[in-house]
Give the backbone structure.
Amino acid sequence: MFLKTIARESNTLRLLRDDPERIKQKFGLNDEELETLRSADLLRSGEMEAPRSRGSRPRSAMPGREALDALDAAGTGTFVPPGTTVPPPTTRPPGTTAPPQGDPLTAGIPLVFGDKDVPGGTVHQNGTPVLDPHGNPVTVQLIGPLQQALRSFGYGITATLTAVFDIPTRHAVREFQREAKTTTTRMSGGVVVTATGAPFTGNISGQADLATLAEMLVWRTNNYRSMTSFLIVTGSGTTTKTTNDVGYSSADIDQARVFALQATNPRVRFASVTHAKTSYGLTNTQGVPLTTVLTDPAQAANFTGATWEKRAICEVVFNEARVFEALNTYDNAFLSVGLFQWTLGPTPDPAELAGICSVLAAADFARLFGQWGLALTSVTGKLDSSLFTGQFSLDGTVLTQDVKAEFRSFHWAYRFFIASQDPVFRQTQYRNALSRLRIVVGLGLTFAGSAITAGQLLQSEFLRAVALDQHVNRPGQTPGALQDCANAFHDPTLLDPNSTAPNALATKWQSKLKRPLAPAEKQRLQDLQTACNSASTSGLAVTGPGTLATMSQAQHDAFASLYKWWRENLGTMTDAATRWASIQTGGHTGTLGSLSKVPGVFTP
């Protein structure tokens, strides 16, 4: 009776009535075995040893007497292949009873995001019971065992199973579906094997539907594991923890090093665990610096642009990421990648990471990202004219904030890390950085009533670099900052610390501080006004449509001081002073030379 109950509840056997040929192919059954399974006689089907013709492919292991004995002895409904050890039961305090757990792989019950275990059953996110195939409330827990199964396949959830079909669980299910559907090799017993039976043809959705649970049963029966796993190394390297998901949200692995293992290949370090801002996440600052490829004769031809442009970009990249492979997953933008730390964006709106990827040729995008289910939509932008933004879709659905959370995982961080080692994606990163610099230089401003571009005001390599630095981090603030500085540069009365004019910088500063200016703050504005007056900045002439005369060195330095003050006091970047000092000190351009601070001098 027990075996017949398992047969009736088994998801795989339930498929017999819907698609018996698929079951026949998946397990390599002959007609008599198939008929035996139709009658739910598991014991007989497991014992049958029908002769096979020479050259016929081996079938996947069906549960025979030895396996069923192990199943019955374990008492968990979980099939343990012959020759393996049943894990010992969890130790519980005296007087407590382990919650009844079922086998989600044979229960014939689809499980979805939000489902969770409760004492004595499994419920949906809204609290209503999950129903069995007969329409009755489930009286066993299914989510914890589902997470255990995923972990056994190499898709770790977290250090502690949550018994909730949460974001990490959905991501693990999605990755299982992707690997089962798109690859034919598996790990089994520490070696690479070819999957047997019919391929998985179900959806990649992150939901544990019946087809997915049936495929999981195949994996468990054949002792399959994922071809990709991740290793966390803590301390001096003697303590390791294996996981495959967002299992880094705890202090016990802070500062741990994270490695990817592909099949039997040597492990590859691609990130470290860090606590930044308000959460744990991954970060990487190791890889190939931009200066390396820009100064390599064998690669330089693929990275176009004037020398001054390359210098400016290198200085800003040093403030940002330093290397192509840089990434982080700890802030509210979910995933940041590359030289300028392009992000998925904190909202469902279009963002820059998808935008820069749109510059890739279609074949390159498919090779680097499309194979993982990514596609592009809502892309806008034009090189050297406007920033590229766009949205990713995953498996046919545009990313929501909820699904973006899956991109904090080891899988996605590793995929973008590997893509950033590709020469084509490196060129794409650089080309977008160069485009951004040219967009900054072309920003529209007014000066003395005449329309000009920011490039007419930013008359040195250094000034263009610090403007690029602001634009990378605060693109929305950069035009206003430059316009405020242009106005005060032409009319130093706007720097009067006692002015109450609406466009006076003292008025704007007090509005931001929400208090009157302190004496030292007033003195700072007074010093800026004095410097502008001494340099006769108001006399800088408009020499033609959209053209300013070349600044004197004193005028250039006065404008630099004014712009620096704005970024530190009216801007919102808390590290503005440090970033400015880094670019001013320089030395991050390799053999390209130092940024010029002389107005009108730009190295071609």
Remarks:
- The longest helix spans residues 423-441.
- Confidence is low (pLDDT under 50) at residues 1-9, 38-92, 242-248.
- The first strand starts at residue 116 and ends at 118.
- The CA atoms of residues 58 and 327 lie 45 Å apart.
